Amino acid sequence: MKKPRRDPAASSHNLVLSTERADGRKQIAEAKLLRFPNRTTHRRYIIDMSSPEFTCICPVSGFPDFATIHIHYVPKDWCVELKSLKLFINQFRDQGIYHEDVTNKIMDELVALLDPWEMKVVADFMVRGNIKTIISANHVHKKTGSERWLVKAL
Length: 154
Hints:
Largest sheet: 4 strands, antiparallel
CATH superfamily: GTP cyclohydrolase I, C-terminal domain/NADPH-dependent 7-cyano-7-deazaguanine reductase, N-terminal domain
Radius of gyration: 20 Å
Distance between the termini: 52 Å
CATH class: Alpha Beta
Strand order of the largest sheet: 4-5-7-8
Order of helices and strands: EEHEEEEHHEEH
Structural class: alpha+beta
């Protein structure tokens, strides 16, 4: 193990920087969405999640876009594992991708993984060029019938 070194540019003599660090970029690049069994399949319920620090790159300007991603779903047999979801969402940080495409990509990946009764993904982007963009994508399982939970709840 390497000995921590003092940063000569630091204004505080108490600041110690380590030459070793967890490689977060590697974890993000290698991340795979994971799932676990829904243990309450006898009841339909809604899971709401938000990722308020989403970023991607505008494919036209090259500037970063910032958004809050909201994911709402009614699980069928599976639930998404949260750490894997966080890492998956962080994979878009350096990608040039349109708002509409990233919203639908997140939806498609989660639907393929979970096969939920219903799902809604909302990407609420920060204002760019005086325009506020909110993209919503919806999915309803083909066996849901007329019983819709997310439409009533949201």
